[in-house]
């Protein structure tokens, strides 16, 4: 299964934020939209990604003033990105090796989506479930041996 297939299952809704916005606004979007990341765009280009990991780091570093911190100060700059044609096994390895729960999927300079570890787990589950059903159907329809 390729990343493009995972994105097709997931859908095309993307949530972004400008780096100059405040963390309070970012947390409101993350919470209201029930997402774990926001891609940060500046002048039409991806500048970084903000996840709950960076938000928690800002709360720890800035205490009660975390809400006034600019997204640019805490976002992950130049994050690793996946490609649409990447195989799921390569994607999983990349996410695990670099300890990233969210990866933007880029096609050149165009953001195609964001893949989360949850999306990968769901795709694996659906793929295994499909294979299971096919194997069970194959076994059920197994032809009897003649002359036995």
Cα shape: elongated
Q: Which segments are poorly predicted (pLDDT under 50) over 5 or more consecutive residues?
A: none
How many individual domains?
A: 1
End-to-end Cα distance, whole Å, is 41 Å
List the total number of helices: 6
Count the strands?
6
Q: Could you say what the CATH topology is called?
A: CBS-domain
- Please give the CATH class: Alpha Beta
What structural class should be given to the helix and strand makeup?
A: alpha+beta
Share of helix among residues? Answer: 40-55%
Tell me the name of the CATH homologous superfamily: CBS-domain
What would your notes on this structure say?
The structure is a single chain. The mean pLDDT is 90. Helices cover 46% and strands 20% of the residues. The protein is an alpha+beta fold. The chain has a 4-stranded mixed sheet with strand order 1-2-3-4. The chain has one domain (3-140): CBS-domain, CATH 3.10.580.10. The radius of gyration is 20 Å and the shape is elongated. α2 links the parallel β1 (16-17) and β2. It has helices at residues 3-10, 23-33, 52-62, 71-74, 88-97, 117-140; strands spanning 16-17, 37-42, 45-51, 76-77, 102-107, 110-116.
